[in-house]
Specification:
Length: about 250
């Protein structure tokens, strides 16, 4: 069973490498598992996901990230993507002048073996099927990626990318951010439809509400750059009831 192993990872901004944000984070995610990462603002959740994906603004000063025992730290971001990593951003970027259809077609083509060409008919059939699943109007294929989109439309477009690329490991950074109840349900249903033994998910969120729709196998509390508590779905409910100050108090008294 494929695994994503994060070993004692220390991450800082590239501009200030001597000031770590993630401070010895360790976690193993196997395909078929959904791990929810919860924690207060500023504890390093988004930094963690971006560093794993290879974002140039961040530097990994120690530790390792491995897929099936092989380190990915020397890989460029596009190589990490081809190795099976997908990052769903908290704030997806706009790409003016590039249609969703062409953007996704290029992304899917990049995953194919050298010399292999994408079948256009099969591609559009699959694209429309995924759009229908996410309740995205098919007219969106001609719109520029995320340009003029609402928060919910951007997140649906991000999940559409994930559905088309079929990654082995999805890092989902606050997917529920900016979503109303209806959009949250649609996005969650899309993720649930992809859930299975071929996909491992690291789901970063502040709130328990997303976990009502995407029930995690494991919940981890991240505080001051590392995991300080782990449990099942009930841990998220406990956090909802007691708040993150409860975790801080436990750490002080431990």
């Amino acid at each position: 069973m494929p695994s994503l192993e994060i070993r004692a990872l220390v991450v800082a901004l590239a501009a200030t490498p001597d000031k770590p944000i993630v401070k010895g984070f360790s976690l193993t995610i196997k395909t078929g598992e959904v791990h929810a990462i919860m924690g207060p603002n500023g504890t390093g959740k988004s930094t963690l996901s971006k560093a794993i994906a290879g974002h140039p603004d961040y530097v990994i000063t120690s530790g390792d990230v491995l897929i099936d025992g092989k380190s990915i730290l020397e890989m460029e971001p596009d190589e990490r993507a081809r190795a099976g990593i997908f990052l769903a951003f908290q704030y997806p970027s706009e790409i003016p002048g590039v249609s969703i259809a062409n953007f996704l077609r290029a992304a899917v083509q990049a995953r194919l073996a050298e010399g292999e060409e994408l079948d256009a008919t099969g591609y559009y059939k699959r694209l429309y099927s995924k759009m229908d699943m996410l309740k995205i109007d098919r007219k969106f294929t001609s719109r520029s990626v995320n340009e003029g989109f609402s928060g919910g439309e951007k997140k649906r477009c991000e999940i559409l990318q994930m559905a088309m690329l079929e990654p082995t490991f999805a890092l989902m950074d606050e997917t529920d951010s900016g979503l109303d109840i209806d959009a949250l349900k649609i996005v969650a249903e899309g993720v649930q439809a992809m859930r299975g033994d071929k996909l491992g998910v690291m789901l970063i969120t502040h709130y328990q509400r997303l976990l009502d729709h995407i029930v995690p196998d494991f919940v981890h509390v991240m505080y001051d750059g590392r995991i300080v508590k782990s449990g099942d779905k009930s841990l998220a409910l406990e956090l909802e009831a007691k708040g993150y100050d409860w975790v801080k108090t436990e750490l002080v008294t431990a």
